[in-house]
Design brief:
Blueprint (H helix, E strand, L loop, with lengths): L13 H4 L16 H10 L6 E4 L6 H8 L3 E6 L2 H10 L5 H12 L20 H4 L2 H15 L4 H18 L2 E3 L2 E4 L8 H19 L8 E5 L13 E6 L9 H4 L1 H7 L3 H7 L4 H6 L4 H18 E12 L1 E3 L2 E3 L1 H12 L2 E9 H4 L13 E8 L1
Parallel strand pairs: 1-2, 1-6, 2-5, 6-7
Antiparallel strand pairs: 3-4, 7-11, 8-9, 10-11
Helix pairs in contact: 2-3, 4-8, 5-8, 7-8, 7-9, 8-9, 8-11, 14-15
Length: 372
């Protein structure tokens, strides 16, 4: 490649960040679609190439690949992430839209006293996290969505349901695990679910304008990519979890209770979580070895000359700044990759969840391109 990679982040508008189905569901620390999009344009890969994202999160890379006609494969250990990813990349057929609309038509029939039509799960501190009226409304929505068995319509409805659970709960925000009294009025959860589903229907319909590539999403540990054939991918474009920054399982815990997932299993598989590094004192090497295992897997799945593109930010661990570009250079070299180039930028300028102090002021994010 003769030209150097560049992206003008200042030129990306808020509206552009939310195009198509990219904002159907909140997800912590996701990168803007223009980054994987610009990398795909820059790499100039052959038509119908397979693009891999071993940490697919909410499917940003997968969608950007699919709308350009590439096939895509994503992996994440968090079932909320893979649910969003599948929905984000799947247009609905007319009969599937009809299933969704049939569920929405039943929302006005909600009767809080009809317990037979409510499906409210039992879990620890449930009444601490949810008002009684919200429990009943969410229980009704849960029962309605459960009436649609499998397929894209079920994924769509479960994604819309998941998207409103935290909003209808007492959890302060998507990235604050603290209960606050929100005083939600009757009808709040029902209205939010309806609004979310209607917006999603319009966004999913926009996907029909594209000749989408095939998207495959697997819910499993990113250190195991056995569902892909060796040498089948032209590029891997991913934003791995930042070390000691987020607990993805924690911020999705209430959603997992309602959707029937095991958050303990997700917690154990999560790489780089604050739970592992801050709460349980695991060192940098634990993170490095986990990422190295993923890099080894990616190397095997890439064709000769294939690219690994990593978007990663510096971390603070035990009050020390960890320059992640240096860490990833060592990991990639050890896995057999050659570094082609790195584009770095000031992390605090583009990250809303930034807490200024003398250490975090030096944090940078890095878009790194390696080649097999």
């Amino acid at each position: 490649m003769e030209e150097r990679y560049f992206i003008d982040l200042d030129a990306v508008t808020a509206q552009e960040k939310q195009t198509l189905t990219h904002n159907i569901h909140s997800y912590p620390a996701k990168f803007i679609p223009q980054i994987p999009g610009s990398l795909l344009e820059y790499l100039r890969l052959p038509a119908h190439s397979l693009i891999l994202d071993p940490f697919c999160g909410s499917g940003t890379t997968l969608l950007e690949a699919a709308v350009r006609g590439y096939d895509a494969a994503g992996v994440d250990s968090n079932p909320i992430a893979t649910l969003i990813s599948r929905t984000k990349c799947t247009p609905l057929r007319e009969e599937q839209r009809a299933q969704v609309e049939a569920v929405l038509s039943q929302l006005p029939l909600f009767d809080p006293s009809d317990e037979k039509r409510l499906s409210i799960p039992v879990f620890l501190n449930r009444d601490h996290w949810f008002q009684p009226n919200m429990l009943r409304e969410l229980g009704y929505i849960r029962a309605l969505t459960a009436s649609v068995a499998g397929g894209a319509a079920a994924d769509f409805l479960n994604t819309a349901f998941s998207a409103v659970i935290v909003k209808a709960s007492n959890q302060e925000s998507d990235t604050r695990w603290r209960a606050v009294n929100k005083n939600h009025p009757d009808g709040f959860a029902l209205a939010e679910f309806h609004k979310k589903a209607v917006d999603m229907l319009a966004r999913v319909r926009e996907l029909e304008k594209f000749s989408l590539g095939t998207v495959t999403v697997a819910t499993q540990d990113s250190r195991n990519l056995d569902f892909l054939r060796d040498g089948s991918a032209a590029a891997a474009i991913t934003s791995p979890p930042y070390m000691n920054s987020f607990d993805y399982y924690l911020y999705h815990k209430l959603r997992m209770y309602w959707l029937g997932y095991d958050h303990y299993e997700v917690q154990e598989k999560e790489i780089g979580s604050r739970n592992k590094h801050c709460d349980n004192g695991r060192g940098v090497e634990t993170y490095v070895e986990s990422i190295f295992e993923v890099a080894q897997q990616v190397y095997r799945k890439l064709a000769g000359g294939g690219y690994l593109c990593v978007v990663i930010g510096d971390s603070i661990f035990r009050d020390e700044l960890i320059s992640m570009d240096e860490v990833y250079r060592r990991i990639a070299r050890r896995a057999g990759f050659t570094e082609r180039e790195t584009f770095s930028f000031d992390q605090r300028k583009y990250t809303r969840a930034f807490t200024p102090n003398y250490k975090t002021a030096a944090k940078r994010s890095h878009i790194m391109i390696f080649q097999k």
